[in-house]
Design a protein that fits this description.
- The protein is built from 24 helices and four strands.
- It is mostly helical.
- The chain folds into three domains: 43 residues, no CATH class; 179 residues, no CATH class; 194 residues, no CATH class.
- The strands form two sheets. A two-stranded parallel sheet has the order 1-4. A two-stranded antiparallel sheet has the order 2-3.
C-alpha cells in the first residue's frame, strides 16, 4: 500500500521546503499563509531497470582489481614481473572479505600448538621435499611464514599438517584443525577464496597422513566447487553468463564478452592440480569424477611450460597429458564395457590407439622417465588402467580363445611390466623417500602390488613366486622403517603400519595362508633368506628388467587358488585388501 508524499504539490512545483507545524495540521504553513489549496499525492517507487546496479557492480570490480595491484606491489616489491603486471590477476583478491580468521582458528602458532621455529622448519620441508612431488601448489622461497600467516592462513595450516610427518601426534592434531577450519570457514562462513582452494589441494595430496575417515571425495568436491565459484576453469575472454530481465524491446539482446586480465601461474597450477586429483584416484577406485577435461586446461599447461617460473613447471604438461589419457581409459571402460567383451569390436582399435599414445608419450619425452619418480609412477599407473580393461573380459565366454585375445594379451603383458617397473622404481629410491609420496602415489603403488600378486598366482611358477616374495620383503622393510608403535589420541597407529599389514597378508595368501611347509622346499628357503636379510643386503631388480615377466596365462587360475581369487576379483580387490589405507 502506497503512502502520502511528504511534500504537497504546491511546494513541490515551487521547489521549496514543505513544513507543517503539527502532524494533524491539514495544510502546510506556506499554503495557509498564501491561501492556496494544499494537496498531497501518493508516493511510489520508480523502476529504472538494472543498468544502475550493473554499473555499480562493474565499478566495485574495478576498484578491487586496482586495490589488488596496489597490495601486491607493496607487499612483494621483489616479486617476478608476471605477478605485478596488469596482464595477470590473482583469485586471492577477487573474493569476499573473510579474513577475520587470519589470526583466529587457523593460526595454530598463536594458539600454542607449535612454535614459530617448528612451523618455519615444516614450511621449508614442504618447499624442498613435498612440493616437488606435487607441483600444483608451489610456495616461493622468498615468502616468509609471517607473510603466509597474514595472507594464506589456511594454506599454511594445510602445509604444516602435511609436512609434520616426523611428529605423528602433532600431525594428527593439525589434521583435525584443518577439518575444523573447513567447517568454520566454508560450511558455516560460506567463504570462497583461493587460500581455501590451495589449502584443500595440499590437504588432499597428503590426506593419507591424517586420521580416519579421510572423506577424500567430499573434500575433493569442495575444492572443485571453489574452482567453479572462482571461475578458474574458463579462459579470460568469456561471454556474460547472466540473463538480464528486459523490459524494453529496443534493448540490445546481444551477449557481452568480458575481456579480463588472465589468471596468474598459481591459479593455473591449482586448476590443473584439481583435475589431477579428480581422476588419478577415481580411475583405480571406480569412482565417478565430475571435473572432466576442457581445452582451456591445455592453454594453462602451455603457459606454465613457457614461463617455467619454477623447475617443476616443465613436468606439469606431461603429467596433464598422462591424466588426459587416463580419463579416456576410464570413460572407455565405463561407457563401452559391454563392447569390450565382444570379439573384433571397434573398441579394440581405440584401445590399441591409446596404447600407442602411451608408447609415443614415453618416446617423445626430452628426459628419461625413470629420472622423475613423480612422472614415472603416473606413467606406469596409466598403463595399469589399460590392464584393467583386459581383466574386465569374461574369462568363460565362448570367444575367449578368439583372435581378439591377442590385444588383451598385449595389454596384460604391458600391465605386468608396468606393475613390476613401478615396484622396482619404488625399491630403488633412496631410503625414507616414501615420506613425500602423495596419497595418489600410494594408491597407485598398492594397485601395482595387487596386479603383481594376481599375475604371480596366475602363473604359479617357482621363479615368479620367489621374485614377488623378494619384492614384498623389500617393500615391507622400507615401509616398516617409516612406522612406529605409537598411537594418537584416538588410539590409531600411523598409516604406514596399515600398509605393512597388507603386505604381510599378501605374503600369507601367496604362501598358502602362512603355511610355508606347503610350498616347495626351494621356494621356502629362498623366501626365508630374503625375509631375514637387511635392506642393505637385499639385491634389487633393475628398473625395467623383464626377464622374470613371461607372458601370463591370466585366464587359467590354478584350481587350488580358484576360491581365493574369486573373492579378489579386480573390482572389489582394492577395497578388500587396502580399505584401511584409503
Amino acid at each position: 500500500m502506497s503512502t502520502l508524499s511528504k511534500t504537497c504539490q504546491s511546494c513541490a512545483s515551487s521547489k521549496v521546503k514543505c513544513v507543517r507545524s503539527t502532524e494533524d495540521q491539514p495544510k502546510c504553513n506556506r499554503c495557509l499563509r498564501l491561501g492556496k489549496e494544499c494537496a498531497y499525492r501518493r508516493s511510489g517507487r520508480r523502476f529504472h531497470g538494472f543498468q544502475k546496479d550493473r554499473q555499480i557492480e562493474a565499478l566495485e570490480s574495478r576498484v578491487k582489481e586496482l586495490m589488488s595491484d596496489r597490495v601486491i606491489a607493496s607487499v612483494e616489491p621483489s616479486a617476478p614481473t608476471s605477478h605485478l603486471t596488469s596482464s595477470t590477476r590473482s583469485a586471492s583478491f577477487n573474493e569476499n572479505d573473510n579474513n577475520e580468521n587470519n589470526l583466529g582458528i587457523d593460526d595454530v602458532i598463536k594458539r600454542g600448538l607449535l612454535s614459530i621455529g617448528t612451523a618455519r622448519h615444516y614450511l621449508e620441508l614442504f618447499k624442498s621435499v613435498l612440493s616437488p612431488n606435487f607441483p600444483f601448489v608451489v610456495i616461493s622461497s622468498s615468502i616468509s611464514i609471517n607473510q603466509l600467516r597474514q595472507e594464506r592462513p589456511f594454506l599454511l595450516l594445510a602445509v604444516l599438517a602435511s609436512a609434520s610427518y616426523d611428529d605423528f601426534s602433532l600431525q594428527r592434531l593439525l589434521g583435525k584443525e584443518v577439518k575444523k577450519a573447513v567447517a568454520a570457514r566454508m560450511i558455516l562462513g560460506g567463504e570462497i577464496s583461493f587460500d581455501m582452494l590451495q589449502g584443500l589441494l595440499v590437504f588432499l595430496a597428503w590426506s593419507h597422513y591424517h586420521s580416519k575417515p579421510n572423506r577424500y571425495t567430499q573434500f575433493l568436491q569442495l575444492a572443485i566447487s571453489l574452482v567453479i565459484e572462482l571461475r578458474l576453469d574458463r579462459p579470460p575472454q568469456t561471454e556474460e553468463w547472466k540473463t538480464p530481465l528486459l523490459f524494453e524491446t529496443q534493448q540490445n539482446l546481444n551477449k557481452k564478452t568480458y575481456v579480463r586480465p588472465s589468471w596468474g601461474t598459481d591459479e593455473k597450477r591449482a586448476v590443473i592440480g584439481c583435475y589431477y586429483l579428480s581422476y588419478s584416484t577415481a580411475v583405480f577406485l571406480h569412482k565417478h569424477s565430475n571435473f572432466p577435461y576442457i581445452p582451456y586446461f591445455d592453454e594453462c599447461c602451455r603457459s606454465l611450460d613457457q614461463e617455467e617460473e619454477y623447475p617443476t613447471d616443465k613436468y606439469i604438461v606431461h603429467s596433464f597429458q598422462l591424466q588426459h589419457i587416463a580419463e579416456k581409459i576410464n570413460r572407455l571402460s565405463t561407457d563401452h564395457r559391454n563392447d569390450l567383451k565382444k570379439p573384433m569390436s571397434g573398441t579394440e582399435l581405440y584401445v590399441m590407439s591409446i596404447k600407442s599414445d602411451l608408447e609415443a608419450f614415453e618416446s617423445r619425452l626430452p628426459f628419461k622417465i625413470s629420472t622423475v619418480p613423480f612422472l614415472a609412477i603416473q606413467f606406469y599407473a596409466t598403463s595399469l588402467c589399460l590392464y584393467q580393461i583386459a581383466l574386465n573380459h569374461d574369462q568363460h565366454s565362448e570367444d575367449s580363445m578368439s583372435i581378439s585375445q591377442t590385444w588383451r594379451a598385449d595389454l596384460s603383458l604391458a600391465g605386468t611390466n608396468a606393475a613390476d617397473n613401478m615396484l622396482n622404481l619404488h625399491i630403488s629410491l633412496p631410503p625414507m623417500m616414501e615420506v613425500k609420496f602423495t596419497n595418489t602415489q600410494w594408491i597407485q603403488t598398492a594397485f601395482a602390488m595387487l596386479v603383481a600378486y594376481r599375475n604371480t598366482v596366475a602363473n604359479n611358477t617357482p621363479t615368479n613366486t620367489i621374485s614377488f616374495l623378494h619384492t614384498l620383503s623389500q617393500l615391507r622393510q622400507r615401509v616398516g622403517a617409516l612406522s612406529s608403535s605409537k598411537v594418537d589420541m584416538d588410539g590409531q597407529r600411523d598409516v604406514f603400519s596399515g600398509f605393512v599389514k597388507r603386505i604381510n597378508q599378501t605374503e600369507e595368501r601367496l604362501m598358502g595362508v602362512s603355511n610355508k611347509s606347503s610350498m616347495p622346499t626351494n621356494i621356502s628357503k629362498a623366501y626365508e633368506n630374503t625375509s631375514m636379510a637387511s635392506p642393505s643386503e637385499v639385491s634389487m631388480l633393475p628398473v625395467g628388467d623383464q626377464s622374470l615377466v613371461p607372458m601370463p596365462e591370466l585366464f587359467s587360475f590354478p584350481e587350488m587358488d580358484d576360491q581365493f581369487m574369486q573373492g579378489y576379483s579386480i573390482d572389489p580387490s582394492m577395497d578388500q585388501m587396502f580399505n584401511a589405507w584409503f
